[in-house]
Amino acid sequence: MAKDLWLPKGFELPDGSKIRSLLYSGDEWQIFDTNGSNNILLTRPELAQKWDEFGFLDESLFGDVAFGTESFRSLSSHKKYTLTAVENGKSPESKVDALAFAFALKESRKLSEDASFHDAVYVEQYSRLLPAWTLTPHVDDEVVLGTWITGGVIISTESFRRLTNLTGWMPVGDLAEIVKAAGFSVPADAGLLAKRKPASQAKSDAKAAIAKEAVVEPDQPQTPEEPAEAKVFKLPGRPQLEEFFNEHVIDIIFNAEKYQALGIDFPSAIVLHGPPGCGKTYAVERLVEFIDWPSYSIDSNSVGSPYIHETSKKISEVFDKAIDGAPSVVVIDEMESFLSDRRSGSSSGLHHVEEVAEFLRRIPEAIKNKVLIIAMTNLIEMIDPAILRRGRFDHIIAVGMPSREEVASLVDSLLSKLPKADDLNVDKILDALTGKALSDSAFVIREAARLAAKAGKTELDQQSIEAALNSLPKDQEKKSRRIGFVWDDK
Asked: Can you tell me whether residue 128 is helix, strand or coil?
């Protein structure tokens, strides 16, 4: 940002107006407020000429201003239009303002494929973003638009779910229209993202709505939208689990209309069970990341309490938050801690029965309110049968330790993103990693990359891979432990 004013306060411009204050500035331009009806963009002649060469603004729109030995080009913009630095812009006050910026971004991008608009000058009067061509890193247009709409929060429009939470003043449909106006896509599940009110407020609003007479608008012919691009979830190393998630979760979420027509409103709850280290948590984390919905965790650390009724209360609060933030995901980790069989002798009395009852009550309610529920356990045989009945958890999926083929699939996926030596042979590490947690495979590749970089290498080689493999903790052998004194008869 330039620190010195190019024109002093009170300087008279060719149209007779006078400079009042500096509003925004960059290295090659400044924006001034005047006592007239216009604001003024002042720029170096070279930058104005470059805008003309690229077709952003014709040089004939600029006037000449001289002060001392300096010469500038000036552009007037009526104060009813926005003239500002993109990086200093405030959140738009209306849908119309946001659409104007989106249109300007789209039209300006047609003029230059490479320019970054994050530090441009927004001239609403001419529907242009004027790039400054600074040496700062390029910023994607989706981030430029998301940051503008939120008034400064750096976020891409691709994170549409989070964007809706940051723009509470704007209906989801309007937000989707603005994003599309800029030439970007919106997620196929945008229709699920209706902003919800907290339960208490929703109840009071419902009472008020009952007293009002409903006005039914006549049906209007609908223009069919183009089919959304198919979304496919990838889970390298777990082809069967990948196929299950795509069929029973992803397709239902992102192609909601065709399922709703046949009575399928939302994916059913899922239980993943298997031994420790089999990759349950990794799979769920990748799924939640792909869906890009807010997630809420229920585990012994977050809701466990030694006080009677406190655990049930915390469980209920998590479900309330998930429902208010729906569509969302609730992940129940170590579900045997809360949902073990009430008839077993290991359960801890009446408050354990109360916790199970709370889950029994809230799970169907959450699913109806578009909350995806995924639970994980190492001990499926301990879970209360009432929890595992159809209607609560419809899908009980066993996850075993990875086979050699599954390890190879993950390793190939990880290596495809890295430069590697032509003679790299991964057969040895595949044999060593078969039957181990998939997280070990990911660790070996990441550690090999670190070791290669540390050694000044530009690609992954056999030595780095084998060194990373050797750094894995060895399987612990069972050792007898002696307690007390050990006598030596010698």
From this structure: strand
When the candidates are 3.40.50.300, 2.60.120.20, 1.10.10.10, 3.30.360.10, the CATH number that belongs to 239-398 is 3.40.50.300
Residue 342: the pLDDT is 56
Q: Span 404-470: which CATH code?
A: 1.10.8.60
List helix spans (H) across 171-308.
Answer: 172-181, 199-210, 239-245, 251-254, 256-260, 280-291, 300-303
Nearest C-alpha neighbor of 187 from the set 228, 144, 151? 228
* pLDDT single digits (tens) 227-275: 445 678 988 888 899 999 999 999 999 888 899 889 898 999 999 998 8
Amino acid letter for position 304: G
Q: Which fold has domain 19-78?
A: Phosphorylase Kinase; domain 1 (3.30.200)
The type of residue at 261 is A
Q: Are 131 and 109 in contact (CB under 8 A)?
A: no
* 396 alpha carbon, distance to own chain's centre: 28
> Which residue in 248, 323, 230, 246 sits closest to 286, CA to CA?
246
In 3D space, the residue among 99, 117, 127, 121 whose CA is nearest the CA of residue 183 turns out to be 99
